[in-house]
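Blinded run. Sample ID left blank on purpose so nobody reads anything into the name before looking at the predicted structure. Input follows.
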Amino acid sequence: MDTIDLYSQSSILFLSLFVMLVGLIFTVIPPLPGTIIIWAGAIFYGWVLGWDKLGWLTIGLLTVLMIVGVVVDLVAGHFGAKMGGASCLAIAVGAVFGLILGIIASLIGTPILGCLGGLIGMVGGVLWIEWQRNKDWETAMRATKGYIAGTVAGMMARATSGVLMLGIFLARVYWWP
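Blinded prediction complete.
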């Protein structure tokens, strides 16, 4: 193997790992889908250096973990709210409040502030609609706590999926034949 080829392979690996680490950060910070970014880093590595460097089993495992991370993230908060007793109207209004407040906070501040605004808007929307519907703070708080628990569970699943994806990629590149 000549020196230029070794440097280019190292550069591609470094770039892929950098993208994957950024994706790992975004598995915890919600503005961008971190598992998709990690998957894209692995696909870039395989595309540039050849698919035989990763193998189809690794690509398949990474794809499955990426899909699981995205689906669980999308469903978990709403499932938690339903388990806490929230109505579909509360979830829909909370989603709209979260979207509006998240966009406004992102325009005024940073994307991190937008994420916080979106979460506050969603929680506030669920709480407000459930209180309007039942006129009982305890019932409204139970539904809101369900949403928060579901969101945290989704975030944990997304982060776990991201860590597993990065681990599988590193194992394939460095240890598996």
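Unblinding after everyone has recorded impressions. The chain has one domain: 3-174.
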